[in-house]
Amino acid sequence: MKCASFKEPLMNSSRPYLVRALYEWIVDNDCTPHMLVNAEFPKVQVPDGFASDGQIVLNISPSAVRSLHMDNEAVSFEGRFGGVAHSLYVPVGAILGIYARENGQGMVFELESSMMDDDEQEDDDVQPDDDGPPEGGGQPPRPTGRPSLKVVK
Fold this sequence. Notes:
This protein has 2 helices and 8 strands.
């Protein structure tokens, strides 16, 4: 008797579901959710000049952003940087972590090569907009310290 071959079902990434759950958990506990983002990931739209070492930390608390939308593809919202309003777009694959500013509790994510590969393939068909850097000068505020991230199990 031959065994039937078992094909593992393809599942969506768990990252967007975990990001939404952790965001809600952090806000419910009256803490400030911060999202660590790979600013060099394809299709990421964050203000120029605020990233350090290719990463940017974004305060996504309800009081800091407007029009927050989190789905399985991306997180998008409007935020202010140096007093200038910006529309931000962060593909789920660019999210490196989400944590509470006050205590560092949250989650860090591994790089998902399949997400990067998919986005790079889609970029081959799309020409980037060349609007130049957004207006609004000034130096970005210096972070008060490096956030400490803890793995929540």
